[in-house]
Amino acid sequence: MALIDVVKCEGNDQEFVWKFPSENLRLGTQLIVKPAQSAIFVYRGTICDEVKTGAITLTTLNIPFLTKLISLPFGGDTPFQAEVWFVNLISKLDNKWGTIRSVQLEDPKYGIVVPVRAFGQFGFRIAQPRQFLEGITGTAKVFTVEQIMEYFKGVVLQAVNVNLGRALVQEKISVLEAAVHLDALAKHCAEAIQAEFARFGLELVNFFFHSINVPEEDPSYQRLKVIKEKAAELNVLGRDIYQYDRSMEVLKTAAANEGGGGAGLMQAGIGLAVGAGLGQQMAQQAGQMVTQLPPTPPSIHFHAVSDGKTTGPFAVAVLQQMIAAGTFSAASLVWRQGMAGWQAASTVPELAGLFAPTVPTPLPPPVPPA
Hints:
By secondary structure, the chain is of the alpha+beta class. Helix content is 39%, strand content 27%. The protein is rod-shaped, with a radius of gyration of 40 Å.
């Protein structure tokens, strides 16, 4: 076999590892290593010397480990056999990735489990050629970008599946708000990907999310949107008015249980409650904005026991309407902040006046005997 005089890489930028086709070398052979390349000598499966960028003549001085392993004599043009592997050190930045199936994640703000899809891009480079050659290449003579992607796409997707949910929790980000926090979420996932890449001599150059989304037709997504809207409503209206709305729902339920007459009473109750409760709250807020009068003390709210369950808190005006609807009585147990324990409604000073004694109907006069 003819001895090789010049050894250089004939691969392209899509081939990250390329093996020189001949092993018939000699001392005096010219080795050309282009910029962003590394040449590694392998003898019988053992990785020997590594040569960085440049053009050199092979001597016993610049391949000392191989020389010792083969016992090459000093000087001359002694022939020897060894593999020469070229490793491409350029960065490959345009690698796309995407979740094959939706990832089930619990929204950290609203507690709803939704199917999340994610898509993005990452870049990598071979940072440790010897380590990469030992861990990945094996018997292949060429190792392309596509092969690296095939090996490591699973690593990227696993890191996204595991760490995206953790990142949402740590950053306290709702799935519905993920689109405006892509950089922060990508940082969490990139750290996990880099730790795995480093085991094989790779460096993660960058990692991006292009999008994080939930299928809009999914029922859990629709439910999550409704809950977010309710939370926004509570934040805008304030807790007192929101609790008032909940009280109205209790009255609606009571009216439905009482039939048509209860429904009419319910409508009357809503009107009275709106005038007495909501109107008072609005007047207080307007008074605080227009005048310098001291603020009105907050209205008193009571919790009540109904069918063995705790309900409320209810304003006194609402409880008055519940008495009319037959869903609240003098014997009903109530409690408010500051009370030592539950008491019958009729024993509480603020509520006692709601239960006025019933005046008995007078008896008709006696009929004189005939």
